[in-house]
């Protein structure tokens, strides 16, 4: 496949380049999420701008390869050095820009994020057109050139996706991981310098010795190819978003899921790009390949969710996760060859002009991918369910195939057979859809074939909320995992609501309270009911929880309480953006410590931010979900730490309320109904709140959680 040593050498260097680029993407996105929030708006802006920067880079690369055709490898070298140099200071730059940004509107968020990502993504995007131009000197076949480089670069990215979440984040931190990526950039540049004489000599000679490709005229109109690649980019990135929604739901958002999903996706893309090179050969059948790939992509994507759900229900949830990754790789294999194939069909084979034309088509593909988070992630997922979005994307892919069939240079009988097959597939989907997708959320979440249907589901761009009927209080699940019960009864205590009542034992007068995370609203109702509470500020990232509350009017009424203010926002970002707000008590019924991005509310950096928002004698009270590392981290920020159940309370003043003070405070809850409730409150007043600061802080085997080490997500397993 690669007869020339120089081709193999450059292919390897581009693989290393892809390895470093994916590391940067994962680390920068995590850092930006911690800085600007993980709400749907911030995620959409960050992912879209990253893709947009790559697209602008593709155009820049197309210009540079045409402007400096005899210095292509030197251009690649300079780009790698530039990316590595930026990587060295990238995290510090993100922190500086975030500090300068402050409270931001959506428009300002776009500008600040692009200020950070513009230069590195431009350099990353420019590498492919430049190397395609170099490789054209050997192959004189744009489809094979793009297919080869796209494949090896994607293989590098796939390796990086796995290594980042399974090795680098486990044994290193974000800063050290970025240094690994920068080292790869500098190593690539050094290897180019080492072999520069031989490579540049072949670079100059390639144009003179390489044979011309047989075909010199495009088989498809260039505008049609550009429009198709725009659509393919949108469809592919949208499919990736829906894959992540499905995997996140069935795994309760494990932190390694995104990296493993990317690895599977990129392996499939690489395989498809390599496989497409055969069809781009002079004796290949590129049109047949394109039509077959789109047919198979539609079938795999539409059937994947029912197959994964059935596997989860009838075999095992772990097995179903593996099946999901296989389906992702299979779909990506079929779509991965479409980019080089369409470039082969739409670009005439003539040297540097082919590479320039390729850069515009690559830009169109990335522009379509940029629309994925904007249209599917931000709009369609807010309007339609996961199931409906799969149907929409499948139908859109089918319409794209119909449009291509009309333009492809094939005989009428071939097109009629393809249309008939498509009609048969559509009829089958219409007839079987209800049965295929029935109970898919229950099967994905519980892994049982006969689990009762959910009483209520709510899907929006922030995630999937499901509610299960239970006589001890309906159970809410957020993105596939327990997130609370609708219960206010202290005696029933099915949701350990006694932990909420304990706020009266932690602070003498909690007049101003901040609650991060609304969940069922049960906690908010109890807190607002305390007579000492003058104001309750609630910050909730997902508006769907507010909608779910409306089914429980005895709880939903808290949002109409004049002392309550609700903000739909990322909790950490809201704290950062409101430095003037000070609270006596900050309460967080935090999610499980091992879930993706849990670090954002458990790290030293967050606790130091929360400490700045506490009044003198203020307390932060939050769920450690069984992690001693969480308690250990609190002891490194605050002077006093105590525990109740699985909650940790921390502050700079001792927890020294007497029994009488605690009892008096506990009796201030308006929900206290009778003697049995008062007896339970008296029991809570007598529960010892032992100081654990010194003992827990001395435990060296525990992790101090930081934004950099992400210990609870990647190191404690």
Automatic annotation (TrEMBL):
It holds the Pfam family Spermine_synth. It comes from Massilia eurypsychrophila. PROSITE patterns: PABS_2 (PS51006). GO terms for biological process: polyamine biosynthetic process. This is Spermidine synthase. Belongs to the spermidine/spermine synthase family. The chain crosses the membrane at residues 7-28, 43-64, 76-97, 109-135, 147-172, 178-196, 217-237, 257-277, 289-310, 322-348, 360-384, 390-408, 420-439. InterPro entries: MFS_trans_sf (IPR036259), PABS (IPR030374), SAM-dependent_MTases_sf (IPR029063).
């Amino acid at each position: 496949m690669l007869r020339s040593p120089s081709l193999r050498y450059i292919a390897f260097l581009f693989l290393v380049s892809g390895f470093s680029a994916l590391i940067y993407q994962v680390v920068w996105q995590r850092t930006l999420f911690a800085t600007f929030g993980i709400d749907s708006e911030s995620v959409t802006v960050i992912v879209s701008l990253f893709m947009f920067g790559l697209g602008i880079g593709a155009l820049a690369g197309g210009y540079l390869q045409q402007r400096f055709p005899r210095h292509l490898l030197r251009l690649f070298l300079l780009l790698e050095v530039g990316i590595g140099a930026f990587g060295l200071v990238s995290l510090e730059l993100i922190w500086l820009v975030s500090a300068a940004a402050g409270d931001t509107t959506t428009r300002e968020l776009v500008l600040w994020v692009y200020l950070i990502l513009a230069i590195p993504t431009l350099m990353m995007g420019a590498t492919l057109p430049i190397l395609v131009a170099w490789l054209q000197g050997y192959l004189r076949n744009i489809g094979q050139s793009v297919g080869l480089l796209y494949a090896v670069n994607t293989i590098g990215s796939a390796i990086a996706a796995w290594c980042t979440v399974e090795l680098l984040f486990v044994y290193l931190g974000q800063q050290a991981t970025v240094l690994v990526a920068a080292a790869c950039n500098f190593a690539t540049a050094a290897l180019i310098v080492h072999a520069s004489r031989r490579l540049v000599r072949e670079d100059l000679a390639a144009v003179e010795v390489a044979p011309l490709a047989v075909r010199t005229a495009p088989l498809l109109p260039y505008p049609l190819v550009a429009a198709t690649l725009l659509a393919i980019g949108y469809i592919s990135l949208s499919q990736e978003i829906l894959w992540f929604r499905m995997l996140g739901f069935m795994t309760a958002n494990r932190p390694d899921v995104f990296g493993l999903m990317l690895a599977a996706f990129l392996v499939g893309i690489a395989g498809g790009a390599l496989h497409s090179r055969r069809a781009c050969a002079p004796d290949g059948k590129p049109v047949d390949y394109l039509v077959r790939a789109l047919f198979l992509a539609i079938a795999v994507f539409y059937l994947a969710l029912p197959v994964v759900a059935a596997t989860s229900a009838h075999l095992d949830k772990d097995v179903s996760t593996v099946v999901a990754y296989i389906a992702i790789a299979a779909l990506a294999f079929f779509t991965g060859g479409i980019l080089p194939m369409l470039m082969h069909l739409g670009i005439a084979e003539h040297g540097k002009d082919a590479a320039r034309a390729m850069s515009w088509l690559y830009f169109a593909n990335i522009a379509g991918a940029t629309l994925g988070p904007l249209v599917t992630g931000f709009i369609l997922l807010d309007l339609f369910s996961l199931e409906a979005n799969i149907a929409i994307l499948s139908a859109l892919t089918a319409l794209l195939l119909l449009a291509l069939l009309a333009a492809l240079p094939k005989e009428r009988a071939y097109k009629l057979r393809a249309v008939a097959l498509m009609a048969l597939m559509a009829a089958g989907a219409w007839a079987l859809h209800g049965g295929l997708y029935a109970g898919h959320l229950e099967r994905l979440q519980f892994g049982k074939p006969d689990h009762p249907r959910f009483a209520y589901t709510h899907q929006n761009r922030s995630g999937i909320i499901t509610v299960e009927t239970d006589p001890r209080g309906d159970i809410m699940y957020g993105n596939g995992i327990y997130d609370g019960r609708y219960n206010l009864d202290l005696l029933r205590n099915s949701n350990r609501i006694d932990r909420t009542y304990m706020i009266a034992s932690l602070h003498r007068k909690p007049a101003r309270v901040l609650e991060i995370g609304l969940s069922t609203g049960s906690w908010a109702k109890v807190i607002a009911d305390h007579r000492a509470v003058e104001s309750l500020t609630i910050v909730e990232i997902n508006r769907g929880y507010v909608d779910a509350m409306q089914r429980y009017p005895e709880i939903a009424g808290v949002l109409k309480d004049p002392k309550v203010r609700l903000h739909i926002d990322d909790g950490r970002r809201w704290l950062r953006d409101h430095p003037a707000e000070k609270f006596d008590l900050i309460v967080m019924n935090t999610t499980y410590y091992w879930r993706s991005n849990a670090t954002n509310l458990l790290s030293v950096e967050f606790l130091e931010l929360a400490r700045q928002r506490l009044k003198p004698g203020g307390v932060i009270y939050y769920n450690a979900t069984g992690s001693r590392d969480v308690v250990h981290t609190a002891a490194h920020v605050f002077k006093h730490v105590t525990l109740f159940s699985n909650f940790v309370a921390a502050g700079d003043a001792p927890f020294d309320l007497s029994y009488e003070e605690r009892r008096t405070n506990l009796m201030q809850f308006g929900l206290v109904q009778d003697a049995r409730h008062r007896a339970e409150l008296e029991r809570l007043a007598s529960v010892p709140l032992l100081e654990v600061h010194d003992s827990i802080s001395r435990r060296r085997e525990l992790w101090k959680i930081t934004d950099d080490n992400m210990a609870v997500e990647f190191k404690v397993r």
